[in-house]
Structures are given as C-alpha cells and as structure tokens.
Amino acid sequence: MIGNDTVGIIFSNMHDNCLRELTDVRTMGSVPYGSRYRAIDFPLSNLVNSGVTKVGIITKSNYQSLMDHLGTGKAWDLSRKHEGLFILPPFGLGNSVYQTRVEALWGILNFLKQCKEQYVIMSDSHIIYTMDFRAVLNEHISKGADMTVVYKNGVMPEDLPEKVRIELGRGRKITEVINGEEVEGKCNWSMGVYVANKDFLIRVISNVVARNRLSFVRDVLQSGISEYRIYGYKFDGFAGVLGSRKGYFRQSMALMDPAVRADLFRSDRPVYTKERDEMPTRFGLGSHVSNSLIADGCIIEGEVENCILFRGVHVGRGAKLKNCIIMQDSIVGDRVQMSYIIGDKDVMYSPDSSMNGQESHPLYIAKGSSV
Length: 371
Hints:
Elements: H1 2-5, E1 6-11, E2 32-33, E3 37-38, H2 41-49, E4 54-58, H3 64-70, E5 84-88, H4 101-107, H5 109-114, E6 119-123, E7 127-128, H6 133-142, E8 147-155, E9 164-168, E10 174-179, E11 186-197, H7 198-210, H8 216-224, E12 230-234, E13 240-241, H9 245-253, H10 258-264, E14 282-283, E15 288-290, E16 293-294, E17 299-300, E18 303-305, E19 308-309, E20 314-315, E21 320-322, E22 325-326, E23 331-332, E24 337-339, E25 341-343, E26 348-349, E27 354-356, E28 363-365
Parallel strand pairs: 1-4, 1-6, 4-5, 8-12, 14-17, 15-18, 16-19, 17-20, 18-21, 19-22, 20-23, 21-24, 22-25, 23-26, 24-27, 25-28
Antiparallel strand pairs: 2-3, 6-11, 7-13, 8-11, 9-10
C-alpha cells in the first residue's frame, strides 16, 4: 500500500551552512560519504526500499552536482513513465529564495496538490541512517495521526543543526516541543524526518504562510500539539549527523566500526548510488593498507591506515596516509605524508609535501586544489 499511497520529499539544501566548505560547490544532499555514496543516497534508498515510487527532491542552490548524481533516477529504479523522480527547483516567497522548511514546502504545494497519494514522508539530507518507512507509516495510520515525528533517544549531538527535542505522553503523543535549548543527558531529539497526511500538510502550510509564520518547529509543531494529533516514532538505529566539519569526519570514520556498517548496509535494504563501472582497485608492490574503506578504481602504491578513499584515488610510492578522507579522482604524490585530512574531489597533492590536521579539527582541502 505504501507505494501507491505515499510520496517522498527530500530537502537537499536544508542545513547547507553546517558544512560550508563542502557545500560551497554542492548541496548537503550531494556531500560525499563512505567512499562511494552521497548523503542523499540514504534517505532516497530508504524511500525506495520501503516501496515509495514517487519522490520529489527540493533544491535551492548549487544543485548541478546533485542533478548529475541523480540523473533520471535509474540507479534507484525511479526512471519511470509514471511517477518516479522529480527535481523541484527553488520557488520562494516574493523575490527571495526560500529560507525555511515552511517556505520550501509552500513552494511545492502545487506539486503536492497534484499528487494522488494520501501520505507524505519528508526527510532532510544531513543525517545518515537506514530506516524502514513502512513501519513508521503503519504506526502513523494505526494511531490516526496527522503528523508523526521520527526521533532518537540519546544524547543530542552537539552539532545537530535544529536542536529540537520532544516530550511524549500516552501512546507517544507529543506533549511538548522544545527548540534550541541545550540539554544534558539523554533526550528525544528530532531527526528531521516527518510523516504527514497530505491534505493536512497542505492545509497547515497554507494557513501558516497566510499569517506570515514561517517556522516549521514553532508555527507547525509547537503551535499544533494541542490542536492536532502529532505523535513520535522512536528510531533505534545508527544516525550520523553531518552537522560540522568535525562531525562529518567523526561520522565518516564511524564506518570503521563493523556494527555501524552492518546497521547501515543491509542485504535486504541496500543503499543505491550512481555507478561508475570502475576497474577493481590495484595494490602495488610495497603498498600497505589497514583498517580502511577503499572504493573501486583506486591505485595504491603507498601506506594507507584508517582512511576512506573514494573512487579513482591514486596514492603514490612512499606516501603515508593516516586518518584521512580523500575524495574522488585525487592524486597523492610520491612520499606525501598526511593525517586528519578531508580532501575534496580532484585534488593534486604534490610529491614530498606534508600536511596534518587534528582529530578535533581536521584540515579541509578544497575541490580542484593543488597543494
């Protein structure tokens, strides 16, 4: 039922300012992650694996790389004559591009009104997770909810962009929504994933925009908990927040934990992405690799320890990489020494160079640089 009755909406640009360096030339949704994926691959694959066959991607700016990555949606089986993948360009209020979630949704109201589906699943792109949306929707329907907020119980990540926590009553009905307050210890923090009845969502967004109230948390959630049936759904899996450079590095390196990989990459719920059909990675004589994730198409002639290498990376002879994230098609020259580096795509690292960051402050190298 979920495929026929549900449309997915992904916010690709929400929280771009959290990773300013990485999103200077791309959206949050197209930020590289895990040696071969983009951040948007996770919510998009979650929707597809849950049977959703119509997905709208809300864009705002710098979305050329996103469109190149998504293409027609073929990698996610969304290249269809009917339904499929929809890129929804920015449509702001007045002369400005949208700034808030409410404005973004207002800009796609016509798209939603034309959808025959009854339910909407909405997700941001800045959290890496694998979830069965069918379970969320089934609970949403069984409780007769107007909206369901997916939350995680635990210590709130310090770099969570929207510090929204919820208090729950009987049956997990939300009784209070607190925004922006720091809290010690465990709490129920929102993951930026929502399920809503489509007609309800259209009506609420139209009403708050008409009154020039543009905050989703304040004007929809906080103002609506007494008037509407808004429930919480607890998520127990891995949720990696890409909320800062340090957070991006930490959540990327979390993939070294077999338990995290097992939670994210399941045989029954694969994470789909754009394929490049690269040759297998080649390891030269004298190379040494330990505890690393290395994508296809790489050439390794040096030493790589505790690193994540994306497709097409070349590590030269005598080079030593430790605790680094090196993105697609970069060339690491001979005898280069690096640690705690986040290197964007197409970077040329000159032979005999040395650069080091720190675990608390990894050094970022911009796309296309020569260093």
